[in-house]
Structures are given as C-alpha cells and as structure tokens.
Write a structure and sequence with these properties.
about 400 residues, lipopolysaccharide transport protein A fold, about 70% strand, rod-shaped
C-alpha cells in the first residue's frame, strides 16, 4: 500500500480500509499542495475527514506534513477511536501517524461509555487507550466528579491517576475526598488518596458533617467504606477521635478506630452557665455507631479507660478528674449527650468532685465486675455496681 496520503472527493470514500496502519486517507472540499524546503505539505479545507487505521478525525482545516507523518487539524476537531468507542473533541489537534497519538488543546473533551473528561490540553494514545490531560481537568462518571490539575489513565482508561489539588465529589453518597494525589479504579469503584487527604461526609440535612484526615486514605465508593491510615483525625461536631488506623462504614453507620485510638468530646455551653467537661476514651479499639449521621453509641474494647475532667470558664482543666476502666466501656448517647455508661470486666471507678473553695474534694473509689452509670444533662444521677463490689468514700473536709 502507498505510504503517502490517499484522497477522495467524496467524504464517504475517504473512510474505507480503516484497518490499514500504513495508509492515511483524506477527504475535503478543497485540497492544496506545496513543497516548503524539503517538506511536502498538503492543506485541506472544509469538511475535512482523516482516516488512519481505526481512527477517524474531522476538522474544518488540516495540514499534512508527509515527511514528519503528522496532521495538524484546526476548528471543530473531533476524533473517534473505533476500537474503543471513545470520542475526542477540541479546538485544535495534531495527529502523529507513526505513534497513532493525538495531541489536543483548547476546550478538550473525551467521552466513552464510562463518562467524560474535559481539560485545556490532552494527549491520547490509540494503541494503549491511555490519555494524559492537563489544566483544569474535570472527569465525570455518573454522580461522581473528579477535579485536578493533571490526570492520566491506565488499563485502557479504566484507572485514573489525578494529581494537584484533587477533589472527588460523590453526590449520591454526599462525600467529598480531597488530596494531592488520587488513584481511582472506575471498574472496582476504589480510590487511594495521598498528599494530606481529607474526606468530608455530609449528613442528610446537608448541614452537619464528618471529617476524616490521614496520611493515606482508601475509598470504596460502591461499598460506602473509607479506610484511613497514619495520623488519623476524625471530627464530628464536638466529638474528635485520633488513631493510626480507622475504617468508616457509611451504610452501617459505624467507624472502627485501631492502633492507639483516643476519642475526646467536650460538653456544656459556657453561655448557658453549663458545667464544662472533657470526656476522653482510650483503649485497643474504639467503635463509633451513628444513626442518621449522629453518634448514638461509643464502645471501647481492650484496656478501656474513660476520663472526665471538669473545665473552668476558659476551657482549662481543673483538678476535678474522674475515671473508669475495665476490659470494655460502652457509652450510649441521646442528642449527642451522654445518657448511660457501662464498664465491664474488672471494672474500676474513681470519682472526684469539689465541694467548694474551702473544702477538700470528695472522692469515691469502687470496683466490681460491672459498673453502670446513668446521666442527666451531663451529670451522674445514679450508679449501679454488680459482682464483687468494693468501695471507699472520702468525704469532703475543711
């Protein structure tokens, strides 16, 4: 077959023999040829069609430099890769015949059965189906939108690697994932984020949210699961949690914190003259249960310890500090306020409270197999101790 371009006056005649990798065919309203130095240059104007292998390109104008085997296309450029069903659009493009590569710029977009990617510049390799996009990149897949400074695809476009101020928005699950780099497998619905990643999960009202930050984060969008590793920090209103490994199961409304987990919640409103307290939990594993995105239960397992410290009006800690410890601690909340606390397995309670400026504080120590505390408005109203009960009470003194 001839190595140079073939031409036809009829656009339909320009597209036969699409499997040929050697021949490139052109069709246009007007064709002009010229030799510039050692280069043979042909210009095509009006309803330009270029066919090479399984790739068909359209444009208002095209210039073919035969010695370099490249086509310069301008105006309403489109390209169709028939082997993948992918379509590309741009203001201008260059097609490299030998590499079967398309370089596009100006209002670039690529579309296929999975979704759409737009940017200012893009390069597409026909044999590998891989692309690289730069500048104001936006990828849309169903109800998920990915934004980045640059993006490239692998595995025939099914895996996306986005870098530079990356943001993944999942409208269906009310989730936003940001980071310096996100690699996302569209087929597996799985993404890994690095570079100070952060997940924000809005509640059904759109007002409250859960925020998770970590060194590395993995999101399983189809399973509604987020896994965070390294310096994990979870924030939900006045509840904060810290650990080195965490998993959040959105569908079940549960979060599991492992490797040095610690949860802190502050209660009381200084403007309402409430008693201000800081509640802290530590253990081997902390499990948070949420209902309608509101915490309803916190459970601690393995060397569990709960500490409550009274704060002054400025938020500083006072000497009034009480603690509970056991093999497990379960806290039940209502409207995000503590209602009941159950300590199980060699339960120990130490309660300390001031009785006025001139008195020594009262202290109460108790042990048992199980200790149950009941709360109202953040204060203990009743205590029940079960099994092998021992206790000591130190009365307040002048």
């Amino acid at each position: 077959m001839p190595d140079g371009p073939s031409e036809a006056g009829n656009p339909q005649a320009a597209i036969p023999n699409p499997q040929s990798k050697e021949e490139i065919r052109f069709s246009a309203d007007v064709t002009e040829g010229a030799r510039i130095g050692e280069h043979l240059v042909k210009t095509y104007k009006g309803n330009v069609i270029v066919a090479h292998g399984g790739t068909i390109l359209h444009a208002d104008e095209a210039t073919y430099v035969q010695s370099e085997k490249k086509v310069l296309l301008r105006g309403h450029v489109s390209a169709v890769d028939s082997s993948s069903g992918r379509s590309l659009y741009a203001d201008e493009a260059t097609y490299f015949q030998v590499d079967e590569k398309v370089a596009l710029w100006g209002h670039v977009s690529v579309e296929d059965s999975l979704g759409r990617i737009t940017s200012n510049r893009m390069t597409y390799l026909v044999p590998s189906k891989e692309l690289a996009a730069q500048e104001h990149v936006v990828a849309t897949y169903g109800k998920q939108t990915l934004k980045a400074e640059q993006l490239r695809t692998r595995r025939e476009g099914k895996t996306i690697v986005a870098e530079g101020r990356v943001e993944l928005v999942d409208k269906e699950n009310r989730l936003i994932l940001t980071g310096g780099r996100i690699e996302y497998d569209e087929r597996a619905k799985f993404g890994i984020a690095t570079g100070s990643p952060k997940v924000i999960r809005r509640d059904a009202s759109g007002e409250g949210s859960i925020t998770i930050t970590a060194d590395t984060m993995a999101v399983h969008t189809e399973e509604n699961k987020t896994v965070a590793v390294g310096n994990v920090h979870l924030v939900k209103d006045r509840l904060e949690a810290f650990c080195d490994s965490a998993a959040y199961f959105q569908q079940e409304g549960k979060a599991l914190l492992r490797i040095g987990p610690r949860a802190v919640q502050r209660t009381g409103d200084p403007e309402k003259n409430d008693v201000l307290r800081k509640n802290e939990l530590i253990g081997d594993t902390i499990e948070l249960t949420l209902k309608d995105d509101v915490p309803v239960e916190v459970a601690v397992f393995g060397e569990a310890r709960a500490t409550t410290t009274t704060l002054d009006a400025s938020g500083a800690e006072t000497p009034d500090k009480s603690f509970l410890k056991g093999r497990s601690i379960t806290m039940k909340l209502k409207a995000e306020k503590l209602e009941e606390m159950v300590v199980s397995g060699n339960a120990i309670s130490h309660y300390r409270t001031s009785q006025g400026e001139k008195k020594q504080p009262a202290e109460n120590d108790a042990t048992g197999d199980r200790i149950v505390l009941f709360f109202d408005g953040g204060s203990i109203t009743r205590v029940r101790i079960e099994g092998g009960v021992l206790g000591t009470y130190y009365f307040a003194s002048e």
